[in-house]
Design goal:
Layout: E1 21-22, E2 31-33, H1 65-74, E3 75-78, E4 90-94, E5 103-107, E6 115-116, E7 122-129, E8 139-145, E9 151-156, E10 164-171, E11 182-185, H2 200-204, H3 210-213, E12 217-225, E13 233-241, E14 250-252, H4 258-267
Parallel strand pairs: 1-14
Antiparallel strand pairs: 2-5, 3-4, 4-13, 5-12, 6-12, 7-10, 7-13, 8-9, 8-12, 9-11, 13-14
Length: 275
Amino acid sequence: MMFKTSFLLAATIAAGASAGYVNTLGAASGWYSDDTRNTAGQVLNGLNSSFQPYFAYPGAPTASSANDAAIAAQLYFTDSGSASGGGSGVMVLDGTTNNLGKTSVRYYGNGNGIGQLNASFTSSFRMFIDPYSTFRTPALNLLVLGNNGLVYSLAWQGATAAAGWNEFSLDASTAAVNDIGWRVYGNGAPGSAAGGARSLNDWLGDASLGSILSGATVLGQGFNIGSYQRNCRVGIDWLESSLINGGERTDFGVVPAPGALALLACTGAIGRRRR
């Protein structure tokens, strides 16, 4: 998809959006469906659940409530049942039954960027992989407005996860292992080419891309199950990121824990909780 430098100046999300406890997509949380595609490979642009500036390119699919419903079949929140694995709440990403399908979610905050890409980046998350006959590890992704005015996608995958609960923790120095690590896509970047996985610090110091990525504006951070990952379904339990929520934990589910409910009642704010 094509992006424009004016991306950051496009429509504004509700200024009060908070990432502390997330049980919905859209302006209320700042979390949105991204490049989500159905089993036929069609990109789904939801009226409420998709981040509209992302679709500001020629020929973009029209936003519709029908697409919101289709997105909700692949990207949803639950406190029990599929992909919960006994946890108290997850955000489910379903890879669909066809390799053309894709599910992607990202936090865009208030639409003005969520921070800068630098050596202080850290992130941790916990997820559950449903025990299909085949399964893949979802990618942690960053969308970055390079210092050259072009947009890049950075995706990190850890070592192949097993069915059940998995927890990952990384920082900018976390090295690639067996060609599994950070990959950079777009505008001449190597993408999925052999040998393309490196640590984030390696990319920030790269002779060609370092000056473009170092200190660049991070537009959003999220997760995706990409194309050719059919029959894969994961539930994201929580995320901690130096770029989101002041580094505090973001929990996913339907109903907040009792402590968070009490906080909601007292302050009217979205509660933060730690397991």
